[in-house]
Every structure is written in C-alpha cells, then in structure tokens.
Write a structure and sequence with these properties.
Layout lengths: L13 E3 L3 H29 L7 H4 L7 H28 L2 E4 L3 E8 L3 E8 L3 E7 L3 H6 L1 E8 L6 E8 L1 H40 L2
Antiparallel strand pairs: 1-2, 2-3, 3-4, 5-6, 6-7
Helix pairs in contact: 1-3
Length: 207
Amino acid sequence: MPYPPHPGQIAQCQTLTPNVKKMLAKNALSAVFFLIILIVLILVLHWTVGLGIFLIPLESFGISVNTTSLLWGMIFLSMFLFIGLLAASYLLTGNARYEFYPDKLIAYRPSFLVFLSDTEVPYENILRLSFSADDFFDSLLRTGTIIVELTGMHHQHLNLPCVDDVEQRARYVTSIIQQYQLTRQAKFTEEYRISGIFDKENYYVQP
C-alpha cells in the first residue's frame, strides 16, 4: 500500500524506501560477527583469568554463584541482546521512507523505534547528491547508500541506506532535482524578461 502524501503537498510524489530484508540481513551479519567476538572474549577470559574475579563483590555479601552458571548466563545474555538488536533494526528500517516532490524532499525517519519524525528539505538546500556501494556488506547484498549533502540546515547530510540499484536510483533522484533547478531558472529568466519589458514601457511613457 502506498504511503499517504505529506499534508499540504501534491498527491503525486516519488517514494524511495530501503530494502528491509537486506538491511536486516546486513545488520544480522554485523551482529553475528560482534557476537562471535564477544563470546570468544568471554571464553578467553574464563580460561585465562577466570570469571570468578567478577564474583568477589558478591561473595562479600554472602552470595555464592557458580562460575559455569555465570559463563552460560553471559553467553545467553549476549544472544538475547543479539535478538533484541535485530528486532530494533527491523522496526527502525521498516518505517523509513523518503518522498521526493517536485520542489522538496521529505525524509521520514524512525524516532524511539516506533515513532516517525519527518524532515523537510527544499531542493535549494541540497548541496550535492552522491552514492556509495564500497562497503563489504553492500557489495555482498548488491545495495548501496545514497548520500544527500545539505547546506543551511541543522543536519549536514541525509543517508538513504540499503537501496537496491543504488546508482540508477541516485541518477533518477538527481534528475528530479535538476528538473526543479531548470524550472526555477526558467521561471527566474521569464520574470526578469517581463520585468525588463515593463521597465522599458515605463521609460517611454514618461513625459
């Protein structure tokens, strides 16, 4: 189902959304990598120093905990955090979208996981648009990030991550912005020409 247009805007717009499945896969691969490193560090600490060093403060209160139970508890906690990060990643990515109108960009980005905050960017404030697909995971998943550099705004740039066919979509978005610039320039030229005509007429009618 298409997203409703932003209030006060024309109904016709181009909507760009990240590939949620690929973004989730990218975050899952990153999380698995760090999870493995964390578990390895826990095991190395257990085999070298021993996890009993963390139990000394508890022993002063008369609390006895088995080091094996502590080891498995830390591993299960790491896995629980891994699942939580994936769920948060899905909520964050699934609600993001970018709407390109004839004269402005409106970015809907997640706030506090479930809420959306919108940022309105007039095309006059877009300094440059580029894309990046050099990341290892982007190369693996055949995605990329569209980078919108801004001027005169609170944010210096907007990133549109995990976009399929990133080069083609970046060129298309650039064409929308260029079309706006050409239309604006043509309007300015026409207004300047009409203003010049009226100036000449006023000059000739003066007594």
